[in-house]
Amino acid sequence: MSLPLSIPSPSAAWQYFDVIAWFNGLFHTDIDFSLRIHMYAVCILVGIIAAVLVTNARLNRRGAERWIIIDMAIWCVPFGIVGGRFFHVITHPNDYFAGQALWHVFAVWEGGLAIFGALSFGALGMWLGCRQTGLRVSVFVDALAPGLMLAQAFGRLGNYFNHELFGTPTTLPWGLQIETSNAAYPVGLPAGTLFHPTFAYEILWNLFGMAVILLINRNVKLEWGKTFALYLIWYGAGRMWFESIRTDYSEVFWGFRTNVWAAFLAVGIGVFVFWWQTRNHTGGVPSAYRPGRGPNDEGFQPVITGEVDHPELDSADGASASDAADKPVVARSSTATA
Fold this sequence. Notes:
Its main location: membrane. Belongs to the Lgt family. This protein is mainly α. The chain contains 9 helices and 7 strands, in the order E-E-H-E-H-H-H-H-E-E-H-H-E-E-H-H. It has a 3-stranded mixed β-sheet with strand order 1-4-5, with no helix packed on it. The protein has a two-stranded antiparallel ribbon with strand order 2-3. It is globular, with a radius of gyration of 23 Å.
């Protein structure tokens, strides 16, 4: 039953679609096997693509080679997915080790990717990717931050299709309708109870945070990982509240849920990184690459799109600004690390 002034959950038919069945109906063929695509997986994939495009554009403006993000994504994405699933499973053990078939641990399409696990494992993949490409870690994470928030917003849309990540009961006009047959429906509540759409709160929080970070970057030059530190502070602060009103409880330690502790840790790391990098790096990053690893150091010039700041170029030789912009980026000799 549709309730006035509320958000309906999408039909269960929208949770997936069978590609082969659609193909057979369209072309009147008779293929025996089936290929099922889940909307949760589609949302995750769209989020990854969006993050790749945004990060690629930001890296290009910083002076990195065009599409070097593909080399980084090969490392970051698999590590992030494995880490996200691992963290979700260990913080919700009753969902997987209380009589259920063990294969559900690997059923990512059913939902269940934790951002804190994705960040932790993805950091390892990022480090390996930066070792391979020569990018500075600080440059990459600063370029990644806005795109990561966009990817998370798409991921939370997938939770909407899966009828999950809803909060405590509410009488607010934007309450979410959840069917009583949902396994996560709180026991004892009457049919027609509305719930906080926490997935939507997080979507809006991430999109707003992305806009704030991009606006700050237009007016203040935050380098050496400080843009990523802002992301950790912003997301962690919001997640502490979202987590406190969710009904799908994670494990509790010392009176707080695991994800609340993880969000608190993210804020703490963000504050520390911002303070430490501000204290130790007063100038700008000389190059997107570590010393000796830039394309110019290997004898070829990178293809750069957009406007790029070149603090290394000295216009005192009488060259015009436009001439300087056409020169290759040369990394300064520096002992600074990412």
